[in-house]
Amino acid sequence: MRDPEATKARIFDAAVAEFARHGIAGARIDRIAAEAKANKQLIYAYFGNKAELFSKVLGICMVDLAAAVPVDPDDIEGWVDRLLDYHATHPELLRLLFWEGIEYGSAELPDEPARQDHYARKVGALRDGQARGVITDAIPAGDLLILITALTNWMAVVPQMRRILAGSRDSDRDRLRASIKEAARRLVAR
What we know:
Blueprint: H1 4-26, H2 29-36, H3 40-47, H4 50-68, H5 76-89, H6 91-104, H7 112-131, H8 141-157, H9 159-166, H10 170-188
Helix pairs in contact: 1-2, 1-4, 1-6, 5-6, 5-8, 5-10, 7-8, 8-9, 8-10
């Protein structure tokens, strides 16, 4: 008996892994189909072409992140902790974002209006914190979002640099986490 939702979920999971590993250009629909135990025609029927599949995969991953780790201007250090934990357990999201950057550069993204809405909500949360005086308004909210996410995401994106520069022991990771939180706290301090 066919279960279209289970098949879509298997395709999605296989596509996440494939795109995270190989990017848009290097990903292969036949490998996704084989891993998902689905035929290629179903992938095209459910998700469209490879670029559309990538866009949908990344969009869903971004929605998952937004739901799991909402921006919290009232608890910047807690937000940083949650971001670090999320990316430690979901490193594929940052890989997908970097592949997207490699593929598209500064060109408009296929789903850019939806992405702008996604980020507008995050920037809006920071603006609200600025308006309430809980974080600095000396730096525009969008810039703060870029700076804080860069601080938190970079060690997951380049784990080799984290290991080389900060060390590989648990105590080194804990120290670096504390440093990132301190840097974020200072960045938003009034």
